[in-house]
Amino acid sequence: MMIAKKPISFVVVLILAVFSNFSYIENEKDNEEIQGNPINTQEEIDAYIQHHLQDAHDFVLFTNGNTGHHIGFPLPIIIWDEGIHFFSSSKFHYGEEVAESKGKYYVLHHEKIYRTDATGTLALDDHHHPTNVRPLDFSITKSVVGILLTGILMILGFGSLARGYKKGPIPTGFSRVLEPLVLYVRDEIARPNIGEKKYRKYMGFLLTVFFFIWCLNLLGLMPFGFNVTGNIAVTVCLAMFTFFIVQFSGNKEYWKHIFWMPGVPVPMKILLMPIEVLGMLTKPFSLLIRLFANITAGHVVVMSLIALMITLKAAFGPVVSTGMSLFLAFFISIIEVLIAFLQAFIFTMLSSLFIGMAVAEHDHH
Amino acid sequence: MYNLIGAGLIVIGGGIGLGQIGGKAMEGIARQPEATSKIQTAMIIIAALLEGLAFGALILGKG
């Protein structure tokens, strides 16, 4: 009865069960064929973690260590190379083969697309970076799927919340969960930091950025291995929004405090000017580094603890090492749920603090 | 090798800082329990600033 009441979780369990069976059968078959070494070296674990942190052009759910066989599903590739090329990433076979589109050949090298010839040769320079031409890549990658998914979920959730207020003042269903969170952002973050008179104008941005970061952080803790907020391009973009909103809403007092600090002698004013200008830039920089580094570090820690079961297998045996890594990974995952919220909170909090500094009225002197 | 030593130093510094912030905040809350929410908010902001510094150093050390 409980399962029937929750159709979504039932479907998720069903999908996981099907996939795990699938991989089990796959493993059985391969073990009969090849008795190779499973992943056990430090380099392979490092490469696995690195691969997880990167954006990808396909979803890999399972990889068979013996055969190198991947199980997953492809994503669309959109590249601009003297005309638009649109094909499925299954043509790359998880980066192992050369894809052909409209007479041109492309190859995937460390999740970057390079133009190549029919045999897939890459000319490497001294630093092992390919010198081949890179076409403009507009592909729907894993991160883009995560962002679109979060966007759709947010539009559905908050759209229904907004529509609910047309019917009456009390929200129903899932909106009851969202309303206290919205009020929390308004009453605990925006109001005290920006001020009673001016906070309304910035609520849209603060709410969007709070729920966007929170949802993406939580998405990163789920299977499929999304790592969107641990991608520096995403956090740079989010911090740039804050930067431009702060600069454009800065009043006369704000600019005066940056370029001609009141209340100090003239030589000091000149000395303070570059420091204040630098401070203007370091504020969003610290925002973007904090979010990026926290989420990346969290993912690395979880992946490393999962990899413990392989590194400690020789010392403690398979059962104890698996138990240890399972316990530690579970423990850290719970902390990561807290950090997912905390980082969204801090990003929103500091954004509203910076906006509050920019719009503050200095009538006390 | 050197970047590992550097990472250790960063973590020591960050740990001292976080310990100071957390300890002082606890003290403040114990003295004035009615100011708990204000103290917590300020504590989280300062901790976040410190953490940003430490992570920035870690990333610079790695790169």
Low-confidence stretches of chain B: none
Strand order of the largest sheet of chain A: 4-3-8
Number of domains of chain B: 1
Oligomer classification = heterodimer
Tally of individual domains of chain A: 2
Find the count of extended strands of chain B (DSSP E, 2+ residues): 0
C-alpha Rg of chain B, in Å? 15 Å
Set out the fold topology.
The complex is a heterodimer of chains A (365) and B (63).
Chain A lengths: L1 H4 L1 H27 L8 H12 L4 E7 L4 E6 L1 E5 L3 E5 L10 E3 L2 E6 L2 E5 L19 E2 L4 H26 L7 H20 L8 H19 L10 H18 L2 H8 L6 H46 L1 H4 L1 H42 L6
Antiparallel strand pairs in A: 1-2, 3-4, 3-8, 5-6, 6-7
Chain B lengths: L1 H30 L4 H27 L1
Helix pairs in contact in B: 1-2
What does this entry look like structurally?
The complex is a heterodimer of chains A (365) and B (63). With 365 residues, chain A is mainly α. Chain A folds into 2 domains: 65-140, no CATH class; 144-359, no CATH class. Chain A has 11 helices and 8 strands. The N and C termini of chain A lie far apart (68 Å). Mean pLDDT of chain A is 81; it is low at 1-6 and 17-36. Helices cover 90% and strands 0% of the residues of chain B. Chain B has one domain. Chain B is built from 2 helices and no strands. By secondary structure, chain B is mainly α. The chains are: A mainly alpha (365), B mainly alpha (63). Chains A and B meet through α9 and α11 of A and α2 of B.
